[in-house]
Specification:
The structure holds two protein chains of two kinds.
Chain A (H helix, E strand, L loop, with lengths): L15 H22 L4 H21 L16 H18 L6 H24 L15
Chain B lengths: L7 H31 L2 H23 L11 H4 L4 H4 L4 H25 L3 H24 L10
Helix pairs in contact in B: 1-2, 1-5, 2-6, 5-6
The chains are: A mainly alpha, B mainly alpha.
């Protein structure tokens, strides 16, 4: 059932919503830099970099305190490396949803996870691959 | 299916899931109609994917021990999101109506994510919303538009 049974999710993480959002925002910032350095497919890279920047801003806006920090390795290389980074970022944002407590925090993480799925599709299409991997955003693979 | 009394908040959550399920039902039917009419393979694929979305939401609701009605008759034309796609007569009109439908569904899922509180629903909602985002990309490409909307 949907409500009324006490704790409805996982145990809150250390640092609460702000810590989780801060880590997601750090990932977005890393991806902004990675896309900005991408020399091939400039239009796609600039568009995605802008969208990542907006995602980071939305995550920061949902924070009530705390800092944007995380140990995020910048993806190096071609579109395949960035595709893997986008998928990883989407999974991280989806994974945070059940731990986030405030609707604003959850909404921001949700929107960021969806944006990464769109980036994945655009990269796949650019690479000449199927942009619709399955009915659940490529999560069944 | 009857069960224990539910709070107003729980009722609102269930209503959100029901609404999305019926929108997916209607979308799947509208896509199938448009695919038959135009012969477009992308529309046919999205019809199948949206039917899977409806099935997943139906399973989510049944897992919450509430009944999930079958798709309403005529949902393809009574649903305000799906109706323009269901009646589109050309491939281009169908693709444009489909993109508009997907953008509305995307906003509906984003809104639901802020209202639903049960963590078990998040995986379902987020993966279906991801699929709709990818469908938008494919539809925009089919329409000859930039695949991604700029957000700056």
């Amino acid at each position: 059932m949907l409500a009324g049974c006490g704790d409805r999710g996982r145990r809150p993480p250390t640092g609460g919503d702000d810590a989780l959002l801060g880590r997601l925002a750090a990932t977005e910032a890393t991806l902004v830099d990675a896309w900005a350095e991408q020399q091939a497919h400039r239009d796609l890279a600039q568009t995605i970099a802008g969208r990542e920047r907006s995602g980071a801003a939305a995550l920061r806006a949902a924070m009530t305190g705390g800092r944007v920090q995380g140990d995020v390795a910048r993806p190096e290389g071609d579109l395949d490396a960035l595709l893997a980074a986008e998928r990883s970022a989407a999974a991280a944002a989806r994974g945070a949803l059940s731990a986030l407590r405030s609707p604003a925090a959850r909404g921001a993480a949700f929107d960021v996870s969806v944006a990464h799925a769109a980036h994945e599709a655009a990269i796949l299409a650019t690479l000449g691959r199927d942009p619709l991997p399955d009915a659940f955003g490529g999560t069944l693979a | 299916v009857s069960g224990p009394p539910r709070s107003a908040a729980a009722g609102a959550e269930l209503a959100a899931l029901y609404t999305l399920m019926h929108r997916e039902d209607a979308a799947a039917l509208a896509y199938a109609d448009a695919a038959r009419r135009t012969g477009d393979e992308l529309l046919r694929r999205i019809a199948r994917q949206d039917a899977q979305h409806a099935l997943a939401l139906r399973g989510q609701l049944e897992g919450l021990t509430v009944g999930a009605d079958p798709p309403p008759r005529g949902g393809r034309v009574s649903d305000s999101y799906a109706a323009p796609l269901a009646v589109a007569t050309t491939r281009h009109a169908a693709l444009a109506a489909a993109l508009d439908l997907e953008e509305k569904l995307g906003r509906a899922y984003s809104d639901a994510a802020r209202r639903v509180r049960d963590p078990r629903a998040f995986a379902t909602l987020s993966t279906i919303a991801a699929s709709h985002a990818q469908q938008q990309v494919a539809l925009r490409a089919a329409l000859g538009r930039p695949m991604l909307m700029s957000q700056e």
